[in-house]
Amino acid sequence: MQGLAASWRLYGRTDGVSRGVFGVLAVLLPLLAWSAVSYLPFVWHPQVLITDPGGEDYLESGMRMNRADFSRAVSEMQSKNEPVPQGIAANPVYLPSPGEVLTAFVHAFTSSAPTGAEHSITQAFGHSIQIIFWGFLISSLIGVPLGVMCGSLPGLARLVEPSVDFFRYLPAPAFGALAVAILGIYDAPKIAIIVIGTLFQQILVIANTTRKLDFALIEASRTLGAKGLKLLFRVVIPGILPDLYRDQRILLGWAWTYLIVAELIGTSSGITWFITQQARYQHFDNVYAAMAIIGIAGLGTDMVLGLLGRRFFAWKREIDG
Amino acid sequence: MTEHQLPDYRTLPADVAERMEQIRQREYVLEIDHVGKVFAQKRHQTVALEDIEFGVHRREFVCVVGPSGCGKSTLIRILAGLEETTTGRILVDGKPVNGPGPDRGMVFQKYTLFPWLDVCRNVMFGIEMGGAERAEARRQAMQWLQVVGLEQFATSFPHQLSGGMQQRVAIARALAARPRVLLMDESFSALDAQTRLKMQNYLMEIWRKIDITIVFITHDLDEAIYLADRILVLKPRPGRVEEVIEVPLSRPRRAAQMMSDEFLATKAHLEGLIRSFGDTTEETDEGEDDFTIPLLTLVTDKAE
């Protein structure tokens, strides 16, 4: 209890129990709110799902309408002494219940028959992962070495960083048409958009990280005879590695942001295409299931990377506390 | 304070005089040849050091003292090659040097062990930079760790060690690269008083055992007198050599000597010198000048 109270003081300390409690609540509270809205009719349910149109011509079963319009239709039919339309209170189509989304989610992994090319969530998602992987890999192969060099060579920084800073402000979607014109309509322009979206940030962020290395360590290693490539590989890179790793985790998030743009250019593909397609058919349970997969995959990779980072860079954690 | 006449700090006891004569006959390891340093800022130039001329003999222990702002840190950074001279040059074994190099090891005031390497790998760093094989470097590093008495911490990481132990590893790391001169920039000033005294004794013990020349920067006068053969006193604005003092204390040194007449006489002289330089920085007031603090609260009883 003490831990819980202390967690609410500014810069207070938490203990393991209260961290656990907050961790569970962080997942549970939004789920409870969503369930309450979905399963307790008195909370919201602004619409009525028609189960039996009764005598009203323009109604069909499966249709949703506002409660006010429904009660007007009911009283109209009552005054005409015709069969009264039946319906149940419901939420709008864009808010499926947790159960429906869970069913769609499970269905995504269990149904083996995709309805046409790239129609299952898993196939669409697999394609997205490929785009992210290649885009981030290519960006990192250029951005990490260039960033480290910019951070450690002031001359190169002056030469490269102004133009990088310029390109950084051009929104990646602006390159969409250009990428398609040059690279065709399939995966290449999509990968290019991811690269354009992350690379320029990557160079600047990593250059800054490199510059932030404790200069006293550089000086100490110089008095021990380190210079040139030895200084770079034995001091600079090991020294910045934990921060570099953290930067890469954040930049991977950027890559996911640009995925949406990338998948809408050329021939639409991947998870974005799946989501827009399903939204068009008003299959919002599938839309939310797809979103959940992206979120879970993102959170999952980040947590795994975080754990690995703590394993690899134990010294850094001990210093930073 | 007893009314008791202190001896002149310049009269050396016979054994010390003999030792100083021996030292004088040794060749110079490190020469500071008319070194000047000017920091150019936007509008004006600051002369940090002006025409410093000094030679350090082989296996001599020299301390540099001076009030804050006298350029002693600039001087040692120039000696290490981390700062360039404006005029003059630095010679090691008679040859001018440019930039930092393994011939001048340095122990910093800050803890500068590589946090990602364990203690042994830290000490191996300089040896490996010299081109030694991994196994040979490890063997030598373990020997140096024995010298500083930390061989059982070889696999610990720097953050697991106390400040004093970290500085001992830093000394081992610097010595392992086989420098001609060991430069120490207020290396013990971050340590507490007891640890500092212990470290001073460690340092003199190591210095006795191996062929190394030490230049030690400090603002702690006790430390300077306790450690040094000669003390170089710098005067501020611009930084110049005010006096070179031969310390009239016999070796091996022991903490008890800090109460001796020779020690007190030297300290009194140094304190007088430093006070004579006056207030060197605008913000700090190091003298005992009177200043009045307005009464801020109603004080009904007296503290003294």
Q: How would you describe what is shown here?
A:
The complex is a heterodimer of chains A (321) and B (304). Chain A is mainly alpha-helical and 321 residues long. Chain A has 3 domains: 2-39, no CATH class; 47-90, no CATH class; 110-320, MetI-like (MetI-like fold, Orthogonal Bundle), CATH 1.10.3720.10. Chain A has 13 helices and 3 strands. Chain A starts with a helix and ends with a helix. Chain B has a domain at 14-103 and 179-276: Rossmann fold (3-Layer(aba) Sandwich), CATH 3.40.50.300. Chain B contains 8 helices and 10 strands. Chain B has helices at 14-25, 72-80, 119-129, 134-147, 163-176, 193-209, 221-227, 261-276, and strands at 28-40, 45-57, 61-65, 87-92, 95-96, 104-107, 181-185, 213-217, 230-235, 240-246. Chain B is of the alpha/beta class. Mean pLDDT of chain B is 87; it is low at 282-287. The radius of gyration of chain B is 21 Å and the shape is globular. In chain B, the strands form 2 sheets. Chain B has a 6-stranded mixed β-sheet, sandwiched between helices. In chain B, strands 2-1-4-5 form a 4-stranded antiparallel β-sheet. The longest helix of chain B has 17 residues, at 193-209. The A-B interface holds A 214, 216-217, 219-226, 230, 234-235, 238-239, 241, 313, 315-316, 318-319 and B 80-82, 99-102, 104-106, 108, 110, 112, 114-117, 125-126, 129-130, 157-160, 170, 173-174, 177, 183.
